[in-house]
Write a structure and sequence with these properties.
- The chain is an alpha/beta fold.
- The protein has 3 domains: about 350 residues, Beta Barrel (Catalase HpII,  Chain A, domain 1), CATH 2.40.180; about 80 residues, Catalase, four-helical domain (Hemocyanin, N-terminal domain, Up-down Bundle), CATH 1.20.1370.20; about 140 residues, Rossmann fold (3-Layer(aba) Sandwich).
- The protein has 16 helices and 18 strands.
- Strand 4 and strand 5 form a beta hairpin.
- Helix 10 packs across helix 12.
- It is globular.
- The N and C termini lie far apart (about 70 Å).
Length: about 675
Amino acid sequence: MEQLGQYTINNEKKAGLTTNQGLKMAEDEFSLKAGVRGPTLMEDFHFREKMTHFDHERIPERVVHARGVGAHGVFQLYESLADYTKADFLTNPSKTTPVFVRFSTVQGSRGSSDTVRDVRGFATKFYTDEGNFDLVGNNMPVFFIQDAIKFPDFVHAVKPEPHNEIPQGASAHDTFWDFIGQNSESAHMIMWHMSDRAIPRSLRMMEGFGVHTFRLVNADGQAHFVKFHWKPALGVHSLVWDEAQRIAGKNPDFHRQDLYEAIEKGDYPEWELGLQLIPEEDEHSFDFDILDPTKLWPEEEVPVKLVGKMTLNRNVDNFFAETEQVAFHPGHVVPGIDFSNDPLLQGRLFSYTDTQLSRLGGPNFHQIPINQPVCPFHNNQRDGMHQMTIHHGQTSYHRNGLNGNQPETVPADQGGYEHYQEKIDGRKIRGRSESFHDFYSQAKLFYNSLTSHEQQHIKDAFSFELGKCKSDMVKANAISLINHIDRQLAEGVAANIGAPVPEENYEVQSAKVSPALSMANTINKPDTKSVAILLNGKPDVETLTNWLEMFANHKINYSIVDQKIYKLNQSLKVTDTYDTADSSLFDAALLISNEEIIQTPILEFIQTTYKHFKPLALSLSNPNAILYSPISLEAKGVYNITTTGIQSFIDGITRGRFWERAL
């Protein structure tokens, strides 16, 4: 027998999987449930041990979503949803509900960059009169796994590898792709992760999704399954990969600065809250399982009902006290909102409180100002680390006679919360519902729904990520997974990374599309986009002033860039130099040149703008000055504004990108 303290574990050696108490486990992929589609059972000691250990692994930084930024705002309902829910903030349009939103990346530490390829967290805390409701979601509607017991495994795989803590803020490494290759259920999510959705242009320009299936319950006890959406007023827009990498070096705080400055300027970000609703009796009416977190509900089959607007209108006063200490939990609900048996959601209902206990030092994290509800709260909980309330009275238990049974429970018809009475009938089992076994059809649906340039970006992303992997086995397994989604994509990526293609074609045969999944079908506005105005010689200040007024009329931001900072006149000033500015930090560029030769930094600036498919305006005294550059004056999105006028450039800014240049 080993002496205590001398035992070491080498996970590179073959061994049977056990609990921390040494109990050998026959299953490690599924939680213990009441039937394969039923709720997770509290007696699942293996899940609780595994998740508890995972939740306490990082102190005090969040285990995931460590890098984030938050802002305050309000939510306003359009019309009552009393037919679907009895939640007060969703049935009373006259009420304005305060909110706090935290955006985040998943993989990196607090010191990582904003523009890495990653899922973005989109968590909203509604401070309602009935208590706090937390909608804790992402900017993608699905997830990598189906069962919460595998969440520690997924995060261990995507995090920097344990032997060298590399890479930071990135999924392009062997352990992540080894996990993907071993878990076919990740096929749909990996397509989203390789898409442009993973590199948003701005936090203000990305969708939010609750991911899970919840229930809405009305005053009569009638239930609807629901998925929550946030639709941005500015549309859904992304960076290109080369641009995202440049920004990570030029300004690693790009997204948080963008959000902060927009709110400070009064350009308040807005999203509409959308609901997808399925009556309880239609639960099994689709060719996918509505409880599967790796599946979305196509908007063409289940339309999104827009029910209200959220506006972020105030930055935090103290980043740590608010953004860092805010504690979200999908189990923070109000009457009229309940859960489904989604096995990933069921695990999160345990995990989040457990995490906050570790990260915020004890059970009283709800007393931190950013987490406090706006309504009074009374219960018999006492003491604990960081207790900030001085409780009066003799009793701290329920029921009691000494204090008249105070605080007393509240009946449901007076606002007390009651769980939806779902009938459960099933055997205790660790397993996966047969209806969860379709791993590839929605991955194919997503890919089919994209434009050619979006599909090319996915191919490029796979090639980059897998090209960073060292293991031939990992690469081969990833190609095998892609081969189930699209054979041509698998062949193209395999050729780029030098990996074999499976002999047999296992591609899902489906031409089904969902146009709502393509970012090409989004809103395009000029509002809050930014233009770099590049000076090469002294400009005509009067003409420039007129152009700037046109920009302001369209809510377009701008920076004037030259070799040094100086005043053009009493009201106009150069704000940036070619050392501090970079084309990747702007949505468009306007070059005003009154010289025969364009300086090298300026030429590099406009060439990069052109390379990233952005609109480029030119006012050149010497049209031959860019004759030998890669820029084509005939290309789409390139404007000679001395002949076309400034409005044509503004129209180009509104459109955003000119993907035709890639042809």
